[in-house]
């Protein structure tokens, strides 16, 4: 799972300022968007990335849900970080994340019923989304609340960006629309395969290759 | 030695208290969410079905609809002006790709179909998906329930034939099968109930 | 015959037609991470199947008897506390928390079992065994079972037989997918894959082609059903 082949080791992305315990809030925020992007660099949260990206609306709703859960979990864990010792750490993470996800799931069922039906089982699957547990472990349990918030928002933005890139490609090519509004001309034959499972895999694979190629090129031209 | 063991024991006690406290807090949050939202969610689920009744049985008033049971099947009675003018029957079955859930509207005697609505389907996008379109569904209005619907590709001529969706014959056939089965049960139940009176 | 037919349909649907990895996109992390060698992949698949079965059994028991609206055990306790009460006891808000704890416990149990009886296998698994807890496939199986048990009319409720069939054959489907992928990747090692696609990229593209192949199974269960039930 942590075979981030083709990506840089996370800590090398933005070096921590000397004399501080790890990157600051701002650094965490910036890191989360591109250098440590959860989908393209860390390869975390693959399940929703493939499952809900057949339309922009579903993808953005999922990103919103992940944002809420990640921010709440990070704040809570950061607040109690001095009370957590190795043994019950994972238990506490899991309990908190499961609660927040239940809250998100109920809210969606109450206020966005159609979207909740479309997202289906993928909202509760946020609980086992490696991204959230990983951020709790790496950042929230070690650093203060503002840093944890910065980290959560940055990573969620990165996640949303990744989801949007894939959902955009799949929706435009597969249904000719964007956020449900038709934008391709009528003669465009919708590439139905794009909104089906194979399209998800192939799109993500090609986009990942593109990201790797681009970062290798910019690294090469710099060095 | 004993000091370390005691501090480890204290550690466990602190953490046990922490977990218990957290569980209580979370329990409270979840109970609050449940109490606050469960009504809304139940309403959403109901509106999904009830909201369709005016379209499925033209002229029916949504607020006057009542849930009932015929032949072990959950059905809805559609009313207009205090008088029952039709039934709405939820039914489902296997489609081409996965399960299809439908709502069928029929007249009071369950002899004619007055409307069809697809609640859930996972048919092929662009092909079997077209069963949700208004245009295709509207052909069900006016069809008879007495002889069982059949799918034709050559253009429906009688009141028991349905035009298939181009390229999605199996999805179209599934819909007809589901409707036929459900209506057969319904009519059987109605006749039995009438026989008892 | 119809009973066996129903179970067979659930099994084939879970393993092939609605394959957990290639159709539902769950269990992708180990699918990408562990599919380098066939024997490792097969071991992972077996471990996941084992854990899924235990977790599905426990979650079915909890959902049916404690968590769903009107569950017998909770209703009985509530009646003891406030007799004659008409409220429907609905603990389904605790579903996800119970499931994740059931899964974590199942993984712990399997870990202890493997460590005791197959120490060499335990060592070769390394970190991957505890990581099964975050495998979406197991939670997904629990959620699918919940869908057919919680809030469903008594006549349509799934019994333990159907729940276990779904879980075990879902695991089998996962194993099939991951072993296929491992076989393909072993061959890919000898190929000249472009630099930027190496690793995750080419694996995902191959998975897409596999998914396309598995789409060919659509409709098999429908005809099987017609054959078995008529």
State the gist of this model:
The complex is a heterotrimer of chains A (223), B (197) and C (230). Chain A is mostly helical.
In what order do the strands lie side by side in the largest sheet of chain B? 1-2-3-4-5
Distance between the terminal alpha carbons of chain B, to the nearest Å?
87 Å
Helix and strand element order of chain B:
HHEEEEEHEEH
Radius of gyration of chain A: 18 Å
Care to describe what's here?
The complex is a heterotrimer of chains A (223), B (197) and C (230). Chain A has 223 residues and is mainly α. Chain A is built from 8 helices and 2 strands. Chain A has a domain of 143 residues. Chain A is globular and about 60 Å long. With 197 residues, chain B is an alpha+beta fold. At the A-C interface, helix 2, helix 4 and helix 8 of A face helix 2, helix 5, helix 8 and helix 10 of C.
Notable characteristics:
heterotrimer; A: 223 residues; mainly alpha; two-stranded antiparallel ribbon; 8 helices; globular; disordered N terminus; C: 230 residues; 11 helices
Secondary structure elements and pairings:
The complex is a heterotrimer of chains A (223), B (197) and C (230).
Chain A: H1 25-33, H2 46-51, H3 56-79, H4 86-111, H5 113-119, H6 130-140, H7 145-175, E1 177-178, E2 181-182, H8 197-222
Antiparallel strand pairs in A: 1-2
Chain B: H1 2-50, H2 53-56, E1 61-70, E2 73-80, E3 83-94, E4 99-107, E5 113-120, H3 134-137, E6 150-152, E7 161-163, H4 169-196
Parallel strand pairs in B: 6-7
Antiparallel strand pairs in B: 1-2, 2-3, 3-4, 4-5
Chain C: H1 2-17, H2 28-33, H3 38-67, H4 72-81, H5 95-117, H6 119-125, H7 128-131, H8 136-149, H9 160-188, H10 200-215, H11 220-229
Helix pairs in contact in C: 1-9, 1-11, 3-4, 3-5, 3-8, 3-9, 5-6, 5-8, 8-9, 9-10
């Amino acid at each position: 799972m942590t075979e981030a082949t083709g990506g840089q080791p996370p800590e090398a992305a933005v070096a921590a300022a000397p004399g501080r315990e790890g990157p600051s809030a701002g650094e965490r925020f910036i890191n989360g968007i591109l250098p440590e992007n959860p989908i393209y660099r860390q390869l975390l949260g693959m399940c929703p990335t493939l499952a809900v990206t057949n339309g922009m609306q579903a993808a953005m709703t999922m990103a919103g849900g992940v944002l809420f859960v990640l921010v709440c979990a990070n704040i809570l864990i950061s607040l109690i970080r001095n009370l957590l010792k190795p043994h019950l750490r994972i238990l506490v993470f899991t309990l908190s994340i499961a609660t927040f996800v239940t809250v998100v799931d109920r809210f969606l069922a109450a206020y966005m019923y159609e979207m909740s039906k479309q997202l289906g089982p993928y909202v509760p699957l946020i609980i086992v989304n490696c991204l959230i547990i990983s951020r709790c472990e790496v950042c929230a349990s070690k650093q203060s609340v503002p840093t944890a918030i910065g980290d959560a928002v940055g990573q969620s933005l990165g996640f949303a960006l990744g989801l949007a890139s894939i959902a955009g490609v799949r929706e435009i090519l597969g249904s000719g629309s964007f956020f449900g509004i038709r934008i391709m001309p009528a003669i465009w034959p919708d590439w139905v395969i794009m909104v089906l499972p194979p399209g998800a895999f192939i799109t993500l694979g090609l986009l990942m290759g593109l990201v790797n190629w681009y970062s290798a090129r910019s690294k090469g031209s710099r060095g | 030695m004993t000091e370390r063991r005691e501090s480890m024991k204290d550690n466990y006690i602190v953490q046990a208290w922490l977990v218990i406290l957290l569980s209580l807090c979370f329990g409270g949050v979840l109970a609050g969410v449940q109490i606050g939202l469960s009504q809304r969610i139940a309403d959403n689920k109901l509106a999904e079905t009830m909201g369709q009744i005016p379209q499925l049985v033209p002229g029916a008033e949504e607020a006057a609809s009542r849930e009932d049971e015929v032949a072990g099947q959950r059905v809805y009675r559609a009313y207009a002006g205090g008088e029952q003018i039709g039934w709405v029957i939820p039914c489902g079955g296997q489609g081409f790709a996965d399960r299809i859930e439908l709502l069928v509207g029929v007249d009071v005697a369950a002899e004619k179909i007055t409307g069809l609505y697809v609640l859930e389907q996972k048919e092929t996008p662009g092909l079997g998906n077209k069963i949700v379109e208004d245009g295709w569904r509207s052909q069900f209005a006016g069809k008879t329930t007495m002889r069982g619907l059949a799918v034709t590709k050559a253009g429906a001529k009688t009141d028991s034939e349905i035009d298939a969706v181009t390229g999605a014959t199996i999805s179209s056939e599934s819909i007809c099968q589901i409707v036929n089965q459900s209506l057969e049960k319904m009519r059987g139940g109605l006749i039995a109930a009438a026989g008892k009176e | 015959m119809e009973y066996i037919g129903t179970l067979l349909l659930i099994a084939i649907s879970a393993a092939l037609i609605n394959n957990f990895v290639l159709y539902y996109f769950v269990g992708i992390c180990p699918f990408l991470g562990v599919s380098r060698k066939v024997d490792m992949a097969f071991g992972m698949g077996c471990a996941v199947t084992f854990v899924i079965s235990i977790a599905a059994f426990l979650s079915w028991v909890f959902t049916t008897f404690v968590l769903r609206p009107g569950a017998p055990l909770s209703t009985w306790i509530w009646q003891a506390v406030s007799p004659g009460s008409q409220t429907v006891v609905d603990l389904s808000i605790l579903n996800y928390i119970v499931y994740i704890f059931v899964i974590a416990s199942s993984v712990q149990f399997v870990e202890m079992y493997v460590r005791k009886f197959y120490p060499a296998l335990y060592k070769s698994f390394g970190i991957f065994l505890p990581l099964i807890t975050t495998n979406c496939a197991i939670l997904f199986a629990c959620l699918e079972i919940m869908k057919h048990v919680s809030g469903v009319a008594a006549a349509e409720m799934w019994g333990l037989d159907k729940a276990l069939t779904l879980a075990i054959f879902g695991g089998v489907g996962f194993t099939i997918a991951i072993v296929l992928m491992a076989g393909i990747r072993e061959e890919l090692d000898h190929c000249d894959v472009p630099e930027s696609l190496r690793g995750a990229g080419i694996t995902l593209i191959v998975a897409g082609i596999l998914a396309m192949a598995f789409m060919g199974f659509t409709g098999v269960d429908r005809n099987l059903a017609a054959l078995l039930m008529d």
